[in-house]
């Protein structure tokens, strides 16, 4: 498949790398190609600038948000939560009728650590995106765990932990679940329509505290049931 | 120990029953003893009125909120989230220096199902209670799963799932963890101070959706880590 990923940060790069390994044609989308290539600064987490990373990932194409949204069969939202709705709204026509895999979380770091959610409880980023792009099939998933685990769940407990999936379109969820299975996911819980994205985004506060308590981001939730 | 439980609903009754089984002297607290005894209606979930339940639990004493708070060594908050802060604020002097085990969740059913949280993200019910009762050692726990599982975790996967505990006082958390262990808990994760209660209360939205998706409330979160 031709898969587009909006956002050139670590989450986007990690999915791009994995999807390319799995044989897909992968495009990474950015606002301004030249600016992304010219950046020489590490990000806030100490990850290398795009150009340095890209040297080892020449099979992945860098393109504009618009070209990625236009050309890809399926598009991932790996944007920062704070800009996701505004960037995606500009791509409304390109994304119409397509599946958008929304990995973003509405984290607000403006008041320091730990971040707050900029939307929650009675609304969610997933719902805001679905509302802004009514003709797009928004599927919220992958947003409840570390990006390395998102694309390679078997590195933890033989993948015996859970991925949540939310969205209004059953076929779209099934297609995204196939991608997740190709990553190695065995346990995928369909929570229901896109309003259930509230629940997954609201996992972030405990996720962040668990990172502190466990001293590692390499953990995940497993739902134990009868 | 002499343990007091504020709230005569199912959560309070379930803890009271279990604590009495474990040999504690248990008091259940209510606003108005006569009204609680005289009530003949089932609750919204179809549970029997207090008097009917109490016939089989004569070892548990019914008393006023104030008498329970005054006499007990340790007090459980099993009140409805919407009244918890106002009821507890009236018991400030009785609860001073005591441990308060806060099981309540700030659920708002005023707009139907699923309920919203009346406080979240930048604050929590646990923090509001700690702020209202600065001399009380508030320990938030048990609020992230079904009440029957709270008091008997071994009925699910030999108790191989997790209980979260939050609070500012390490000794108080250790004492409450001892009670949890006497219930059968093996995995107890200390998330940190009372601000981490935000994370556990914000689990409620996904908990409610999982109940819908799994068709049973008898499940719990397990944190899978390296």
UniProtKB/TrEMBL annotation, chains A, B:
This is NADP oxidoreductase. GO terms for cellular component: plasma membrane. Transmembrane segments: none annotated. SUPFAM superfamilies: NAD(P)-binding Rossmann-fold domains (SSF51735). GO terms for molecular function: cupric reductase (NADH) activity; ferric-chelate reductase (NADPH) activity. Keywords: Oxidoreductase. GO terms for biological process: copper ion import. Signal peptide: none annotated. It comes from the Bacteria. It comes from Candidatus Ryanbacteria bacterium RIFCSPHIGHO2_01_45_13. Residues 2-106 form the Pyrroline-5-carboxylate reductase catalytic N-terminal domain.
């Amino acid at each position: 498949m031709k898969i587009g990923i909006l956002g050139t940060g670590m989450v986007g790069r990690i999915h791009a790398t994995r999807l390319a390994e799995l044989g897909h044609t992968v495009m990474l989308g950015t606002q301004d190609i030249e600016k992304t290539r010219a950046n020489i600064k590490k990000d806030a987490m100490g990850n290398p600038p795009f150009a340095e990373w890209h040297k080892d990932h020449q099979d992945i194409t860098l393109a504009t948000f618009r070209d990625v949204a236009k050309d890809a069969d399926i598009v991932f939202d790996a944007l920062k939560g704070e800009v996701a709705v505004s960037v995606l709204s500009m791509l409304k026509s390109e994304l119409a009728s397509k599946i958008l895999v929304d990995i973003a979380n509405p984290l607000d770091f403006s008041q320091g650590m730990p971040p707050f959610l900029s939307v929650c409880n009675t609304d969610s980023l997933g719902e805001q995106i679905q509302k802004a792009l009514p003709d797009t099939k928004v599927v919220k998933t992958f947003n409840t765990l570390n990006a390395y685990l998102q694309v390679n769940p078997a590195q933890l407990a033989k993948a015996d932990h859970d991925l949540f999936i939310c969205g209004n379109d059953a076929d779209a969820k099934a297609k995204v679940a196939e991608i997740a299975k190709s990553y190695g996911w065995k346990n995928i819980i369909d929570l229901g329509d896109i309003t259930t994205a509230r629940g997954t985004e609201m996992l972030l506060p405990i996720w962040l505290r668990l990172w502190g308590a466990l001293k590692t981001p390499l953990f995940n939730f497993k739902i134990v049931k009868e």
